[in-house]
Amino acid sequence: MSYERPHDAADERLPSSNQPGAGPGRPRTRYHRIVSVTGPLQLIQAFANTLGTSPGPDELGTREEAAAWLRTAELLPAEAGLSNSEHAALLRLRESIRDVLAAHTGGREDAAAAARLTRALADGRLVLTVDPASAVRLASAARSSYPNLVAAIAVAIAGSAASGAWPRLKACSAPRCGQAFYDESGSAAVRHCSAHADSM
Questions:
Q1: In angstroms, rounded to a whole number, what is the distance separating the alpha carbons of residues 128 and 130?
Q2: pTM of the model
Q3: Sign of torsion, CA 68 72 74 75?
């Protein structure tokens, strides 16, 4: 099974969330949907950046706002919504991702943040599927919408980790920022997003 970090027209399907991203394709299988790894970094970055700089907007602030963003990102079917518990779980997932990205920025291990993210991603109920041609893919074993969107994010994280890019996805350490950015520097030691790079 291979993961890659392409930049293609599919990346235009995610809502801006301060940074553009990619929407995963979902052919149907017995496990409801295969989860694509197209544009893994863009998906994670866009999801993390649904919370703006402080004070700033929260694109997932209400169930209705969250569902609208997820539909635009093609992570939620048009007819589906979020329950109160699913909305709360979605916010915990985003916060746990942002906490891990902050640990990346500081070049440190954060066992508590890693454990929270692991628990949040478990809702995706990922399994491996093998088709008649022996192609191996990750899919969600759940049929409901929320586990499938969590699975899409989990596969995006796995894809960026497999490419070696995951540790370079960071959270800006500037006060009241926290925006996710990709550190392309040779040293991998950048701590601030482009908006704050010149002021720090």
A1: 7
A2: 0.78
A3: negative
Residues 6 or more apart whose CB falls under 8 angstroms from that of 126 comprise: 35, 138, 139, 140, 141, 151, 154, 155
What pLDDT is stored for residue 1 in this prediction?
A: 42
Task: For tokens 């993961």, name the residue.
Answer: 3
Give the whole-angstrom CA distance, residue 127 versus residue 54: 38
Contact partners, residue 79, CB within 8 Å, separation at least 6: none
Residue 113 sits at φ, ψ, to 5 deg, of: -65, -40
Pairwise pLDDT comparison (123 vs 200), residue with the higher score: 123
Domains for the chain: give ranges and CATH numbers.
9-163 (1.10.3300)
Which burial class, exposed, middle or buried, applies to 50 when counting CB atoms under 10 A from its CB (0-12, 13-18, 19+)?
Answer: buried
pLDDT tens digits, residue range 10-22? 344 455 554 333 3
Residue 107 burial (C-beta neighbours within 10 Å; 0-12, 13-18, 19+): exposed
pLDDT at 199: 54
d(CA 11, CA 16): 10
How much is the pLDDT for 192? 82
Does residue 27 surpass a pLDDT of 50? Answer: no
Rounded-to-integer distance, Cα 1 and Cα 149, Å: 21
